[in-house]
Amino acid sequence: MEYSQAEILQTVRMTEMEHLDIRTVTLGLSLRDCVTDSIETTAQRVREKIERVASRLVSTVDEIGDEIGIRVANKRIAVTPVSILTEGARGNPVDLGRAIDEAAGSVGVDFVGGYSALVHKGFTRNESEFLDSIPEALASTERLCSSINAATTRAGINMDAVARVGRLIKDAAERTRDRGGLACAKFVCFANAVEDNPFMAGAFHGIGEPEAVLNVGVSGPGVVNHAVQHAEKNLPLQELAELIKKLSFKLARAGELVGREAARRLDLPFGIIDLSLAPTPVPGDSVANIIEGMGFERAGTHGTTAALALLTDAVKRGGAMASNSVGGMSGAFIPVSEDAGMIEAARLGALSLEKLEAWTSVCSVGIDMVAVPGSTSAETIAAIIADEMAIGVMNNKTTAVRIIPVPGRDVGEMVEFGGLLGSSPIMALNPFSSDQFIRRGGRIPAPVQSLRN
Questions:
Q1: How many angstroms separate the CA atoms of 288 and 297, rounded?
Q2: pLDDT (0 to 100) of residue 434
Q3: CA 281, chain centre distance (Å)
Q4: In the chain, % of residues over pLDDT 70
Q5: 336-349 pLDDT tens trace
Q6: What is the per-residue pLDDT for 108?
């Protein structure tokens, strides 16, 4: 992959002036060879393997960032879904989660994902017990992230799992009441989860992945926002899409450069680049601001679903042109608390939960980092998740929910999560009940479009 002098100078400018960074280099690591019939022994083997394979991850990635002048914001690890590692083993799965968290801390990564279960068509006895362990595991660890896949286009929606998730989110919130329900920020419920996602909280190392692999999350909303804000105000939309596509091409090239060099130095295979625009609370580093720059007073008003569709497609086109290794989710993330523009739009009432749900049909994931009143019932949370699962299943795409019922807080109040997690106004929900629907349980069958063979 050759770079011209002009490309290098453009990348330097984007780095210095437009908040360009590589959001994450994530080591995917299989832990299946660590399994024993004792969780205690498995935990010891897991700790040893993470510390051995990931010992040089952080220092190597930082060295590369310093050498080429592009900051890599986060270094992360994704592991085999832990529910698989605990199948048939004696002991408490939380102990394994804590061992993974401690190992992640010892090698210096920011987060570790994979305290996860794939239960889109049902659960084993072990997986059912594992789900019950998630609130305690998240509340008692610092870096550990968790996810559940509750639906796929081929299987339909496991509504028993969705109802369980509503209850475990309430439990996790209560266990971290003194931190604004922070444990819920480390948990996500998916439809059509992907195996090579480098972003948290939903990263896990899929069964179809190699022993160990490096995946890169590129991000770069600040660069795209700068370009859109400075573009001609009456630039036709197809030309605006072309502008975003060309920038995404450059972002993907920079991400692949970092990822391949890190893989070479660590003697690991390079996996994918995930092109998703992932915002931060830093002013200007905002997907909402990109949308507003296209001609809207506030993100969330009428027409912004079309604008987000343009943005997401242009990002994918640019990345696909730049690399044969595009994967993950690759589009645009819309986490409310992590995006300064969305925080302000939600605070002013321009951005509602219903509009976020509409955006889900065209973006990378869905209802993400949304704070709701602490009094919200488990059934209402499950119903919000069910809607997102339905969008994913019917449209054959990945959708997800990361929602935080903030104990003791009500609509309009602000909650601070800190760091990249940002802050958020407590958003209003529809006041009418969905309880009876959720209590029916069972499974929503796969749609007819799943019959594609």
A1: 11
A2: 95
A3: 16
A4: 96
A5: 888 889 899 999 99
A6: 96
Which numeric CATH code is attached to 217-448? 3.20.70.20
Over 80: is that where the pLDDT of 331 sits? no
Query: What's the pTM value of the predicted model, to 2 decimals?
Result: 0.91
d(CA 102, CA 99): 5
| Residues 204-244: tens digit of each pLDDT | 999 999 999 999 988 878 888 888 888 888 999 999 999 99
Q: Token pair 């709701």 is at which residue?
A: 372
Q: Which range has the worst mean pLDDT, 152-156, 191-195, 253-257?
A: 253-257
Question: Cα–Cα distance between 159 and 195 in angstroms, integer?
Answer: 22
Average pLDDT over residues 175-196: 94
**Tokens for 379?**
């059934």
Delimiting residues of CATH 3.20.70.20 domain(s) in the chain:
24-191, 217-448
Q: Which of these CATH numbers, 1.20.140.160, 3.20.70.20, 1.10.10.10, 3.40.1280.10, describes 24-191? A: 3.20.70.20
Query: For the ranges 44-48, 264-268, 449-453, which has the lowest average pLDDT?
Result: 449-453
